[in-house]
Design a protein that fits this description.
Strand order of the largest sheet of chain B: 1-2
Number of helices of chain A: 14
CATH superfamily of the largest domain in chain A: MetI-like
InterPro entries (chain A): MetI-like, MetI-like_sf
Pfam family, one (chain A): BPD_transp_1
Helix content of chain A: over 70%
Membrane topology (chain A): Multi-pass membrane protein
Shape of chain A: globular
Helix content of chain B: over 70%
Number of strands of chain A: 0
CATH class of the largest domain in chain A: Mainly Alpha
Radius of gyration of chain B: 26 Å
Strand content of chain B: under 5%
Low-confidence stretches of chain B: 1-5, 7-12
Number of domains of chain A: 2
Protein name (chain A): Carbohydrate ABC transporter permease
CATH topology of the largest domain in chain A: MetI-like fold
Keywords (chain A): Cell membrane, Membrane, Transmembrane, Transmembrane helix, Transport
Oligomer: heterodimer
Largest sheet of chain B: 2 strands, antiparallel
Structural class of chain B: mainly alpha
C-alpha cells in the first residue's frame, strides 16, 4: 500500500514535469534563439556566442518603425482601458442599483450582445469607418471598443453584491444617487475594476483581427500586426523574429506577474459564477 | 470600507450650492439610470446595432466596396452563389474539423492539468503559471514561434517522425496545416480551461471525498463518481467557450498564410471566417461577404443551440 502510494506520487510528478516541459519549451526556445546568430539557430551555442544584435536590429531596421508601433499599441491599449473604466461600471451600476423604465431591455441587450462574435459585424464596421475617414486612425481602434458587454455584466454582478445601505447612508449624508456612485460605490469596486483592466489590457494588446483590418497602413500598425509583417518580410531570420516575439510579449507578461492573483480570479469568476 | 467611513468628510463639499432641480435630477433613478447607460447605448447603436443590421441588409445586395452607392437588391442571389461554391463547403468542413479535433483535446488536457496542479506538491504555483501563460500571449506571437519550430528539419518535426509523421514544414503542407492550427489552439486554450476547472474543483465539498474514503472508494472511483459529476456545469462552460472560439479562429491562419491567400496552403486551412474575410474585405465584395457572415452567424447559433440541448443542465 505504501509502495503503491509512492508510485502514484512519482507518476504524478513525472506527468506534470513532462507536460510542463512541453509548455515551457517554446518559450525557452524563443528566448534562447533571440540571443544567437543565424548560424546557431537550432544548435546549442555557448554563452560566448550570444549576442543582443537581434534586439538592436529589431528596433533600428530601416524597413519598419518599431518604436512607432510600440507607441501606437500603448495609446490604443491605454485609451481602451480608460474608456472601459468609466463606461462599463456606470452602466453596470445603473443595471444593478437603479430602477428605471427600459432597464430590462438594456440588460437583455448586454447579455445578447455578449453572445455575438465580433466577426459578425466586421465588414460593415470596416465600410463605415472608411466612409467617415477613420481607417488608420486611433479612433477606429478605440471608439467602438470603449465598452464591452462582458465587463458591464461583470460590474453589474459586483454592484448587486454591494448592500443598498451604503447608498442609503450616503444619501442621508446629503449625497445624491449619482454622487454616492462616484464617491462611495465606485471606490469599493477596486478589485473588479482591476480584473477588468487586466482582461481589457490582454485583449487589446494581443488583438490582431481588428487592428490588422482597420489600421493596415504600416505607420499605424500596432505591435502584433507589425510583428506579423516583420515575420513575413524576414522569415529566414529566425533570431530577429524571436527578438520581436520577446519584445512584443514582454509587457503583457510583466503585467501578468504583477497582477497574477486578480487575473486568475477574474478569469474564473467572469464566466461560471456570473 | 475606507471610503464609507470617510463620508463625513465629504458632506460639506457635496452640499455646495447647486440648483435644486439639478440635485433632484442627480438623485432620480430614471435620470441617472439613462445617463449612466447612455455612453454604452450610443456606442452600441453606432458600432454594434447599426453594423449588425447592415450585415443582414448587405447580404441581399450586390455591392462592392469601391461602388457603395451602386448597391442593387438581388434577393437571395448571394446565398445561392455561396451554397453552390464548393470552397464554402470546404471551409465549413475545415471549421468543423478544427473544432472536433481541438475542443475535446483541450478540454481533457485542461482537466488533466487542473487535477494535477490541484494536489499539494512542490512548485505547484510554477506549474500553474507555466500552463496558463500561453493563454495570455498573443496568437500571432505563439504562431510565429511554432512556425519556426515546425519547419522541416528541426528537432520538433524530427521528433514527430517517431509517430509516423513526415519531416516536412507543417504549416506549408496541405495534409498537416489544419492539424498545425489545431495544435496552436489547444496549446493556448487549455490554460484557460485549466483555470476554470481549478475553480470548479475547489468548490467541490471536502466531505464528499471523506464519505467516499470511508466507503473504501479508490482514488479512481472517487474521481469517477464524485469529481466528474460535480464538474458537469464547468465542463459545459469550458466546452461552449472553446467551441465558440474554435469557430472564430483567425489570427493563427492569417499568420501562417503569409503573403498567400487566407487559408494557405492551397485552401487547406480555409475556414468560414477566412472565407468571408477573403471575399468581404480582401476582394471588397461587401454583399457576398456579408451573406457568408450571416451563414457563419447561423452556424454558430445552431451549434450553441445543440450544445445547450445535449450538454446543458436539464433542470
Amino acid at each position: 500500500m505504501q509502495a503503491n502510494k509512492r508510485f502514484t506520487q512519482l507518476l504524478h510528478y513525472i506527468v506534470v514535469l513532462l507536460l510542463a516541459l512541453v509548455f515551457f519549451l517554446p518559450f525557452a526556445y524563443t528566448l534562447y534563439t533571440s540571443f544567437v546568430t543565424m548560424q546557431d539557430v537550432n544548435k546549442l551555442a555557448g554563452m560566448p556566442h550570444w549576442t543582443i544584435d537581434n534586439y538592436k536590429l529589431f528596433f533600428t531596421n530601416d524597413a519598419y518603425n518599431v518604436p512607432k508601433w510600440f507607441l501606437n499599441t500603448v495609446i490604443m491599449t491605454g485609451l481602451v482601458i480608460i474608456g472601459s473604466l468609466i463606461i462599463n461600471p456606470m452602466a453596470g451600476f445603473a443595471l444593478a442599483k437603479l430602477e428605471f423604465a427600459g432597464k430590462r431591455l438594456i440588460f437583455w441587450i448586454v447579455v445578447a450582445t455578449m453572445m455575438v462574435p465580433y466577426q459578425m459585424i466586421l465588414i460593415p464596421v470596416y465600410v463605415n469607418m472608411a466612409q467617415i475617414g477613420w481607417l488608420n486612425t486611433f479612433a477606429a481602434l478605440t471608439v467602438p471598443f470603449l465598452y464591452q458587454c462582458l465587463y458591464i455584466f461583470m460590474m453589474r454582478q459586483f454592484f448587486i453584491s454591494v448592500p443598498n445601505e451604503f447608498i442609503e447612508a450616503a444619501r442621508l449624508d446629503g449625497l445624491t444617487k449619482m454622487g454616492s456612485f462616484w464617491r462611495i460605490v465606485y471606490p469599493l469596486a477596486k478589485s473588479p475594476l482591476i480584473t477588468m483592466s487586466i482582461l481589457a489590457f490582454a485583449g487589446t494588446w494581443n488583438s490582431y483581427l481588428i487592428p490588422s483590418t482597420l489600421a493596415n497602413n504600416p505607420d499605424q500598425y500596432v505591435l502584433v500586426v507589425g510583428l506579423n509583417s516583420v515575420k513575413d518580410m524576414f522569415f529566414e531570420n529566425t533570431p530577429l523574429i524571436m527578438a520581436g516575439v520577446v519584445l512584443s510579449t514582454l509587457p503583457i507578461l510583466i503585467f501578468f506577474f504583477l497582477f497574477q492573483k486578480q487575473y486568475v480570479e477574474g478569469i474564473s469568476s467572469s464566466g461560471i459564477k456570473g | 470600507m475606507a471610503a464609507y467611513e470617510n463620508r463625513n468628510a465629504m458632506i460639506d463639499h457635496s452640499r455646495s450650492n447647486r440648483p435644486s432641480w439639478l440635485r433632484s435630477l442627480a438623485d432620480s433613478d430614471v435620470a441617472v439610470g439613462w445617463l449612466f447607460t447612455l455612453p454604452f447605448l450610443v456606442l452600441w447603436v453606432w458600432w454594434f446595432l447599426y453594423p449588425f443590421a447592415q450585415s443582414f441588409l448587405r447580404s441581399f445586395q450586390d455591392v462592392s466596396f469601391t461602388a457603395l452607392n451602386d448597391a442593387t437588391f438581388i434577393g437571395l442571389q448571394n446565398y445561392i452563389q455561396i451554397l453552390n461554391d464548393p470552397e464554402f463547403y470546404q471551409a465549413v468542413l475545415h471549421s468543423l474539423q478544427l473544432v472536433v479535433i481541438a475542443v475535446p483535446v483541450q478540454t481533457l488536457l485542461g482537466l488533466l492539468m487542473a487535477v494535477l496542479v490541484n494536489q499539494k506538491m512542490k512548485g505547484q504555483g510554477i506549474f500553474r503559471t507555466v500552463f496558463f501563460i500561453p493563454y495570455i500571449t498573443s496568437q500571432i506571437a505563439v504562431t510565429t514561434v511554432f512556425m519556426m519550430l515546425f519547419k522541416k528539419g528541426t528537432f520538433v518535426t524530427k521528433f514527430f517522425t517517431l509517430f509516423g509523421f513526415e519531416d516536412v514544414t507543417w504549416f506549408a503542407d496541405t495534409r498537416y496545416a489544419l492539424l498545425f492550427v489545431s495544435i496552436l489552439f489547444i496549446f493556448q486554450q487549455c490554460g484557460f480551461s485549466m483555470i476554470v476547472y481549478l475553480s470548479g474543483l475547489q468548490e467541490i465539498p471536502r466531505d464528499l471525498y471523506e464519505a467516499g474514503q470511508m466507503d473504501g472508494a479508490s482514488k479512481w472511483a472517487q474521481f469517477r463518481y464524485i469529481t466528474l459529476p460535480s464538474l458537469k456545469p464547468v465542463t459545459f462552460f469550458v466546452v461552449s467557450v472553446a467551441t465558440l472560439l474554435g469557430f472564430q479562429i483567425y489570427d493563427q491562419i492569417a499568420a501562417i498564410s503569409r503573403y498567400g491567400a487566407l487559408g494557405s496552403p492551397a485552401g487547406a486551412t480555409s475556414t468560414v471566417v477566412t472565407y468571408f474575410y477573403q471575399h468581404g474585405i480582401r476582394y471588397m465584395n461587401i454583399g457576398y461577404g456579408s451573406a457568408a457572415v450571416v451563414l457563419f452567424f447561423f452556424i454558430i447559433m445552431f451549434i450553441t443551440f445543440l450544445q445547450k440541448k445535449w450538454l446543458g443542465d436539464k433542470e
